[in-house]
Automatic annotation (TrEMBL):
Coiled coil: none annotated. This is EAL domain-containing protein. The chain holds residues 713 to 998 of 998 of the full protein. Residues 24-281 form the EAL domain.
Length: 286
């Protein structure tokens, strides 16, 4: 991070940089009103069993339609919301909305249990009401904690390992599952990860991209290593950003059993998730 800052310093007088700083400032104040103005919504991307193609869950992903700028990607506004702390309220809203939208439509006693995944910001770990809010939301919507997975990035978990450990233990005591998101993109040591009570890891899209492509051998090596680590640590692995049949086949060969990506479905509104993935007419069996 220090190195990165050093590099940024050279660009202080770059007009593009100033525009960015200004942007962040106005986005920050717009964000504070976004929820109340109904500009936020949640979409869901199915997570599928790579062997059968059945949806075994879905990840809730936040969307913001800004009145003037149009859709602002979460990679742009989530960091701004994290900086201002607005992400605590927004994140609580995502959890509540996702449960409210998914719970009424998904039988919790399906043969293959359906797991709802929600992203948590590191700032939410500092929220002393996080665990009680979570329990309240689960109870209100009648959703089993075991079918909720909280995704935290590797850096969120290892920046303040003691804080993360304490909160994860309490979160997991509710029954909820924990996934390490964007696994392999941070610099956490395996020693750190091993200390944390986690259930699964999500293999970052950048490592999945090179799979099944002859030029991507280095990245496929990383994917293979990550799957090896998951296996050795007895964690489930979910591949992110599966876009091609070749990637799917490579993942299957490597023993990866779960994935999400445009090959299966883009993130969709709850009613589409229900209609096409969960409740919709099943194709006739051969
Ligand atoms: P993430 O949690 O790693 O989510 C996966 C991202 O990959 C999503 O981007 C998803 O739309 C995208 N994706 C899925 N399949 C494919 C694919 O096949 N190809 C490509 N190119 N992309 C694919 P999205 O929705 O733009 O979200 C970006 C990031 O923003 C998320 O990464 C997550 O870190 C953050 N985010 C999104 N919603 C929330 C939220 O409710 N709370 C928090 N704290 N962060 C969120
Ligand atoms: Mg995620
Ligand atoms: Mg990810
Ligand atoms: Mg990501």
């Amino acid at each position: 991070r220090a190195k990165q800052r050093g590099r940024d310093r050279l660009e202080v007088y770059d007009p593009a940089m100033q525009a960015t700083a200004h942007d962040r400032l106005t986005l920050g104040s717009d964000l504070r009103r976004a929820l109340a103005r109904g500009e936020m919504r949640v979409v869901y991307q199915p997570i599928v069993d790579l062997d059968t193609g059945t949806a075994v869950g879905a990840e809730a992903l936040l969307r913001w339609r800004h009145p003037e700028r149009g859709d602002v990607p979460p990679d742009v506004f989530v960091p701004v919301a994290e900086e201002s702390g607005a992400i605590v309220e927004i994140g609580a809203w995502v959890l509540e909305t996702a449960l409210a939208e998914v719970a009424p439509h998904v039988p919790t006693d399906r043969a293959a249990p359906f797991t709802l995944a929600v992203n948590l910001s590191p700032r939410q770990l500092e929220d002393p009401t996080l665990v009680t809010r979570l329990q309240g939301a689960l109870r209100r919507h009648g959703w089993p904690a075991e079918q909720l997975c909280l995704e935290l990035t590797e850096t969120a978990l290892t920046d303040d390992l003691d804080l993360a450990l304490g909160v994860l233990v309490r979160l997991r005591a509710t029954g909820a599952r924990i996934a390490v998101d964007d696994f392999g993109t941070g610099y956490s040591s395996l020693t750190h990860l091993q200390a944390l009570p986690i259930d699964s890891i999500k293999i970052d899209r950048s490592f999945v991209q090179g799979l099944g492509d002859h030029r991507g051998s280095e990245r496929s090596t990383i994917a293979r290593c990550v799957l090896g680590i998951a296996g050795a640590m007895d964690l489930e692995a979910v591949a992110e950003g599966v876009e091609t049949q070749a990637q799917l086949e490579a993942l299957r060969r490597l023993g990866c059993r779960r994935g999400q990506g445009y090959l299966f479905s883009v993130p969709v509104p709850a009613d589409v998730l229900e209609a096409t993935v969960l409740g919709g007419p099943r194709p006739p069996r051969g």
